[in-house]
Design brief:
single chain, alpha+beta, YefM-like fold, three-stranded mixed β-sheet, 2 helices, elongated
Length: 81
């Protein structure tokens, strides 16, 4: 296996050596940027499965946290009106 030591390749280079580049990304964990006319368009990187629980993934995603212990009454539900 030949390891290409560059992080950017053109679409035509990628097309010709895609399997080789996939193996490179798997082996080195270094992403490859595919360019179109010199501009980055696609990033190929190794897949990482989420090893955290769904609750851990949501941690820190609350936008507003105002008085969470306040009871909810019938007057607070718009659809009951």
């Amino acid at each position: 296996m030949v390891i290409i030591m560059q992080n950017e390749v053109s679409k035509s280079q990628f097309k010709a050596k895609a399997l080789e580049m996939f193996r490179q990304v798997e082996a080195t964990n270094e992403p490859v940027i595919v360019t179109d006319h010199g501009k980055p368009t696609i990033e190929v990187r190794k897949y990482r499965s989420p090893e955290r629980s769904p609750l851990q993934l949501l941690k820190g995603s609350v936008i507003e946290y105002i008085d969470p212990d306040k009871p909810v009454g019938e007057d607070d539900w718009e659809m009951l009106s």
